[in-house]
Amino acid sequence: MRRIITATVQNRSGVLNRITGLLQRRQFNIESISVGRTETEGISKMTFVVEVEDHRKLEQLTKQLHKQVDVLKVSDITDKAIVARELVLVKIGCNSQQRAELNGIIEPFRAHIIDVSKDSITVQATGKSEKIEAIIELLKPYGIKEIARTGLTAFQRGQQPQVTEFHHYSLIQ
Amino acid sequence: MKVETKADAIQDAEQSHKKTGADLFVEALVQENVDTLFGYPGGAVLPIYDAIYRSEKAFEHILTRHEQGAIHAAEGYARVSGKPGVVLATSGPGATNLVTGITDAMMDSLPLVIFTGQVATTVIGTDAFQEADVMGITTAITKHNYQVRSIEDLPRIVREAFHIASTGRPGPVLVDIPKNISSAPCEDNYKSTFYLPGYQPNLKPNPLQIKKLKEALKEAKKPVLLSGAGVIHAQASDLLQSFAKKHGIPVTNTLLGLGSYPGDDELFLGMAGMHGTYAANMALHECDFLINIGSRFDDRLTGKIEHFAPNATVAHVDIDPAEIGKNINTHIPIVADAKEVLKAFENQEVNAQHHGDWLRQLQQYKQEYPLWYNKPKEKLIPQWLMKQIQTITKGDAIITTDVGQHQMWAAQYFTFSQPNRWVTSGGLGTMGFGFPAAIGAYIANPNKRVVAIVGDGGFQMTMQELSLLQEKRYPIKVIIVNNEALGMVRQWQETFYNKRYSESLLHTQPNFVKLSESYNVKAIRIDTQQHLENVLPDVFADDHPYVLDCRVLQQENVYPMIAPGKGIHEMIGVKP
């Protein structure tokens, strides 16, 4: 199963090495990892997307992460209401005639062209991983020269749906 | 005009004996009540060794003859005293020589605080002389590790290291100290208070889980207790004993848990696992309620998972949440200190059922399938040898071992009536562990007889520490169980590789008697039972170190045995 795990960590030297080393030696596959500072000084947040076999493995993953002295909090937010985004930069071979056409393709994705040269353009897109995959798929026929992805970063939405809350929708007011 | 540079300041400090980082380090160890430091000097720790020299015996320094000896001695010290063993080694090769011992301590949850020298921060990363990436190398094998980058942090880091090593699930913590930090002049007023928000081990059990445990205990018809080294770390052996007796629950131990429950008690079934007793393993297979206190369901214990306690409700008490549910499905998880859990049962009525039938059945197993061996007329055999050592020490000794056949025989035939008497390399299975560990064990408890039971292979890996017996006259008795082979390797080759003894027979050996004598340590070679019986009383009455080269029959195998991949009930060699 594909899971999104976030970890709040103390920003000490070697913390990234500790965590990636741990995942590697306990045989967890990391699909993506992103790290950055948070609103609190000295605290960073990591977001991993991992592929695990089953719930037992998943439990081990969160427990082993939590055992690290520099790790303050570990959450599996896959099943929560979350906002999750990643950013991609795609360099595509493109002559001046194709530019308008490409613009038409990326516009619905709310992506931008951030660099233009004689024979290529660079597109920047942000969104959920599925959206990123979709835009890459659409750009492929034009000849992708280079892709750089940041990996997913995510957190929980401000409000989580209450299980007990029931909403009745009706067209008739 | 002379502009004072940093280098000048350092030189000044060294010459005028102004306080340096190294002095601060020595003070920090004194603060932690360190009485013994196992170490080996070298370039990057010269300032520290100078501070130790100047401190005039703030604590005793034990100079082993190899860093591996230092760390195994520290492990022996930690196992017997329950306090962290402290090690100091230099950078590069000094540090890398510690790696086996650090991993061993990690696997067996032993509290160690290890200090390594490092090249100056100004040259870290330049492949300087005797530089090694100790942080990178040891991250995977320590509970936590630090590199001191600024001298103000030194007192705090030392305190954190001792705290982390000795609390929660104990483990090794390494502190890497660059040479320019230990030689830098320093102030007196650095803060040593610390706060570790990411490290808050949970000691108290969840009352809800305790309630569940009580209910399950009430229902259980065939309960069994499995106790591991966690009980010994928690100093909960007495509580465990009263718990088991009050509710009439039979007890088995893991290899490292030996001594957590008295081996001569009638409820005791013997050690469980690959070379455990029939009664213990069958109890684990047939029970309907298994309470594991402080063991981690290692694969050498469980055998094939699906045959391990297949019909049982499993309760697992462990201070490390990550151990619960790791290997065995657990119904009642209790993350807590073993002592706190057992305390919750003090003065509590559970109204557990009377397990008469179950106990009778296990007694019958014990009587019908005891440990066995065939004793030849004259020749020495290892199982009998263990029994003789048991008799001569009246069971009141600290036993250390390496790994392999002799280790299993010692575990099977020695009766441990108290905790902290059994020092062995369990998880990592390190050859050469037993002898240096005995030195640390003796230092931790000099009032007890210490016996190092080692293999001829293992002893040759760390026998340079005979120098310490020569120097300090520690009255340690080294029993070399000499079968001229890597016994366990040989046994597996015999059983599973059709007797193709590939590189496991060691017919060329040093003359262990002459070797020991060259270190001024008395030694005897023993070939027969009669000879052993004749010399043992003198050897053990003598307050000198002794090496006994006991030539035992090579073809003896350790039984019973669960073959790899088999279930815990599928033992071979349960009867002659």
TrEMBL record, chain A:
<protein>
    <recommendedName>
        <fullName>Acetolactate synthase small subunit</fullName>
        <ecNumber>2.2.1.6</ecNumber>
    </recommendedName>
</protein>
<dbReference type="GO" id="GO:0003984">
    <property type="term" value="F:acetolactate synthase activity"/>
</dbReference>
<dbReference type="InterPro" id="IPR027271">
    <property type="entry name" value="Acetolactate_synth/TF_NikR_C"/>
</dbReference>
<comment type="pathway">
    <text>Amino-acid biosynthesis; L-valine biosynthesis; L-valine from pyruvate: step 1/4.</text>
</comment>
<dbReference type="GO" id="GO:0009097">
    <property type="term" value="P:isoleucine biosynthetic process"/>
</dbReference>
<dbReference type="InterPro" id="IPR004789">
    <property type="entry name" value="Acetalactate_synth_ssu"/>
</dbReference>
<comment type="pathway">
    <text>Amino-acid biosynthesis; L-isoleucine biosynthesis; L-isoleucine from 2-oxobutanoate: step 1/4.</text>
</comment>
<dbReference type="InterPro" id="IPR045865">
    <property type="entry name" value="ACT-like_dom_sf"/>
</dbReference>
<keyword id="KW-0808">Transferase</keyword>
<dbReference type="InterPro" id="IPR039557">
    <property type="entry name" value="AHAS_ACT"/>
</dbReference>
<dbReference type="GO" id="GO:0005829">
    <property type="term" value="C:cytosol"/>
</dbReference>
<keyword id="KW-0100">Branched-chain amino acid biosynthesis</keyword>
<dbReference type="InterPro" id="IPR054480">
    <property type="entry name" value="AHAS_small-like_ACT"/>
</dbReference>
<comment type="subunit">
    <text>Dimer of large and small chains.</text>
</comment>
<dbReference type="Pfam" id="PF10369">
    <property type="entry name" value="ALS_ss_C"/>
</dbReference>
<comment type="similarity">
    <text>Belongs to the acetolactate synthase small subunit family.</text>
</comment>
<keyword id="KW-0028">Amino-acid biosynthesis</keyword>
<dbReference type="InterPro" id="IPR002912">
    <property type="entry name" value="ACT_dom"/>
</dbReference>
<dbReference type="InterPro" id="IPR019455">
    <property type="entry name" value="Acetolactate_synth_ssu_C"/>
</dbReference>
<dbReference type="GO" id="GO:0009099">
    <property type="term" value="P:L-valine biosynthetic process"/>
</dbReference>
<dbReference type="GO" id="GO:1990610">
    <property type="term" value="F:acetolactate synthase regulator activity"/>
</dbReference>
<comment type="function">
    <text>Catalyzes the conversion of 2 pyruvate molecules into acetolactate in the first common step of the biosynthetic pathway of the branched-amino acids such as leucine, isoleucine, and valine.</text>
</comment>
Automatic annotation (TrEMBL), chain B:
<dbReference type="Pfam" id="PF02776">
    <property type="entry name" value="TPP_enzyme_N"/>
</dbReference>
<feature type="domain" description="Thiamine pyrophosphate enzyme TPP-binding">
    <location>
        <begin position="402"/>
        <end position="550"/>
    </location>
</feature>
<dbReference type="Pfam" id="PF00205">
    <property type="entry name" value="TPP_enzyme_M"/>
</dbReference>
<keyword id="KW-0100">Branched-chain amino acid biosynthesis</keyword>
<dbReference type="InterPro" id="IPR029061">
    <property type="entry name" value="THDP-binding"/>
</dbReference>
<dbReference type="InterPro" id="IPR012001">
    <property type="entry name" value="Thiamin_PyroP_enz_TPP-bd_dom"/>
</dbReference>
<comment type="similarity">
    <text>Belongs to the TPP enzyme family.</text>
</comment>
<keyword id="KW-0028">Amino-acid biosynthesis</keyword>
<dbReference type="InterPro" id="IPR039368">
    <property type="entry name" value="AHAS_TPP"/>
</dbReference>
<dbReference type="InterPro" id="IPR012000">
    <property type="entry name" value="Thiamin_PyroP_enz_cen_dom"/>
</dbReference>
<keyword id="KW-0808">Transferase</keyword>
<dbReference type="GO" id="GO:0005948">
    <property type="term" value="C:acetolactate synthase complex"/>
</dbReference>
<keyword id="KW-0274">FAD</keyword>
<dbReference type="GO" id="GO:0030976">
    <property type="term" value="F:thiamine pyrophosphate binding"/>
</dbReference>
<dbReference type="InterPro" id="IPR011766">
    <property type="entry name" value="TPP_enzyme_TPP-bd"/>
</dbReference>
<dbReference type="InterPro" id="IPR045229">
    <property type="entry name" value="TPP_enz"/>
</dbReference>
<dbReference type="InterPro" id="IPR012846">
    <property type="entry name" value="Acetolactate_synth_lsu"/>
</dbReference>
<dbReference type="GO" id="GO:0000287">
    <property type="term" value="F:magnesium ion binding"/>
</dbReference>
<dbReference type="InterPro" id="IPR029035">
    <property type="entry name" value="DHS-like_NAD/FAD-binding_dom"/>
</dbReference>
<dbReference type="GO" id="GO:0003984">
    <property type="term" value="F:acetolactate synthase activity"/>
</dbReference>
<feature type="domain" description="Thiamine pyrophosphate enzyme N-terminal TPP-binding">
    <location>
        <begin position="20"/>
        <end position="136"/>
    </location>
</feature>
<comment type="pathway">
    <text>Amino-acid biosynthesis; L-isoleucine biosynthesis; L-isoleucine from 2-oxobutanoate: step 1/4.</text>
</comment>
